Amino acid sequence: IPIGFQGAFSQPLDIVHNIFCLCPSCHRAVHNAEDSFARNILTHLAEKRPVLQKFDLSVPELLGLYAVERID
């Protein structure tokens, strides 16, 4: 969950389960790549740790925070 959204959450976002170490290329991709590629990275990361359950978020809601949600 992007730290910039701290104001939307009552719990701190700077916890171990919400911090991921990414190479510079993947970090740029999360923020600047084609939406489908960013979605793949974010979904993969979300499956690695229970951070979404801790903050009661779904994967689509997480993708919305990064503005890469699917719009059908």
List the helices and strands and how they pair.
Elements: H1 24-32, H2 35-48, H3 51-54, H4 59-65
> What is the overall pLDDT average?
91
Low-confidence stretches: none
Q: In DSSP terms, counting alpha (H) and pi (I) runs of 4 or more, how many helices?
A: 4
Helix and strand sequence: HHHH
Question: Termini, distance in Å?
Answer: 23 Å
Strand content: under 5%
Largest sheet: none
Q: Which shape, going by the Cα principal axes?
A: globular
Strands, count = 0
Kindly provide the radius of gyration, computed on alpha-carbon positions and rounded to a whole number of angstroms.
12 Å
Structural class of the secondary elements? mainly alpha
Indicate the percent of residues in helices: 40-55%
